[in-house]
């Protein structure tokens, strides 16, 4: 199993986050990063001690003061450990169902990575405890709701911090939230709880790693889904016997939007071997008396291109966040020898607005892609517009007792509408907290959670579109030579390979049957990227 190293430079990628989230990689702390943590922690403690000996009224926010609107309250050295524990347990105030284990694991990884950068004034043992939890599959139970993602994701991160100190709850093998104390008595805890010291509770819960975890995993899914959208477009062009000319590179060079050019190149590449990949007007009209395809095919690159741009931008923002220091206060000292207590600085790196804005971009992309797919599904079940596929893709000789894929098209409408509902711009609806001290918050976690769910629903919608396409191709083959049928056409190798993979999850429809379970199985393969991989096409990175 691969091991991902947490270092001072900060080098996590979205792929790393997803690997650790799903238990496919281990984590370790770089020895040099450990040395820095230990050295700067010791220097901060000794410098503060010297300052207090010189002036007992010395205040350094987060080190010997209260937090938030309680910042004026002085805390004596003898009370610092209790302060940190109280901070964590009092902030465990989330509600609702527990966040999925992969999201929590990603959050733990991201918090450990931020602390490992060496600007948070924590001992190495704090980072190492988080790493031990990951490597031994100890997953805190984190109620999903209750963060506003400014001053960090305080409640979710505190639920994780509570497990670090042996309190809170963890998820057992069946996904139930059990008290950490009971888990530690079970015989295989996998980690040793610690007692927090000066600043360490604050370091554990100040940051937007929970928002970033939801967003990063959503972005990883959306990257696979935009590739699926391009594949579905190429399959849709062929199933409807459309033309590939709208995806030519020279056409898109005349309006060179980066995302649209990339999507057009993908679709045109996926159409290789298709008879009408580059057909002129005369050849196309002779075949089916059509000159232009509907917008859901002809304009797909122009529609999906901006979605690709939004996904790429979100990936960039979420990666920057994963590689950042998001604590408060932050130690800006770079040299132990010239350590200056005054460089421990209160700032706003715990504010999640950048995450909110670009996670919302993922939601926009999902909503746009959902409608494009839904429109193609609506057309393919329409006997008046589907070029001989008959009502509900049952063929011209459909039995009057069968409904075929009729209700699956309804499902696409419901899924599309649900995704649109998720796309409420909640990051524009800031609510002040903490007696007005935190007077503008980001709501990033709520946006990112919605993006994550939208990706799951979009995969289901795409699965239905693929099921329609696979069934349509079967109908065309079965009715070849019939008066209403189109003439045979050469099809592309990549798209046919993908449809073969679809058949494995969604068997041919030969009479009415329950569809949900096969569709959801197919959606899982869409979300994992298995259907895209089956095409054999190498998607260029954008």
Q: Can you describe what's shown?
A:
α17 packs across α19 (516-528). This protein folds into two domains: 2-207, Fumarase C, Chain B, domain 1, CATH 1.10.275.10; 216-324 and 349-534, Fumarase C, Chain A, domain 2, CATH 1.20.200. Strands 1-2 form a two-stranded parallel sheet. Strands 3-4 form a two-stranded antiparallel ribbon. A two-stranded antiparallel sheet has the order 5-6. 52% of the residues are buried. It has helices at residues 14-21, 31-54, 80-90, 101-116, 124-135, 154-164, 180-184, 200-205, 209-239, 249-252, 258-270, 281-288, 295-298, 300-322, 353-380, 406-422, 444-478, 493-505, 516-528, 530-534, and strands spanning 2-6, 25-29, 95-98, 143-145, 169-171, 177-179, 330-331, 344-345. It is elongated and about 95 Å long. The protein starts with a strand and ends in an 8-residue tail after the last helix. It is mainly alpha-helical. It has 20 helices and eight strands.
CATH class term of the largest domain: Mainly Alpha
CATH third-level topology of the largest domain: Fumarase C, Chain A, domain 2
Q: Strand order of the main beta sheet, please?
A: 1-2
User: In which range does the helix fraction lie?
Assistant: 40-55%
Features:
542 residues; mainly alpha; Fumarase C, Chain B, domain 1; two-stranded antiparallel sheet; 5% strand
Topology summary:
Elements: E1 2-6, H1 14-21, E2 25-29, H2 31-54, H3 80-90, E3 95-98, H4 101-116, H5 124-135, E4 143-145, H6 154-164, E5 169-171, E6 177-179, H7 180-184, H8 200-205, H9 209-239, H10 249-252, H11 258-270, H12 281-288, H13 295-298, H14 300-322, E7 330-331, E8 344-345, H15 353-380, H16 406-422, H17 444-478, H18 493-505, H19 516-528, H20 530-534
Parallel strand pairs: 1-2
Antiparallel strand pairs: 3-4, 5-6, 7-8
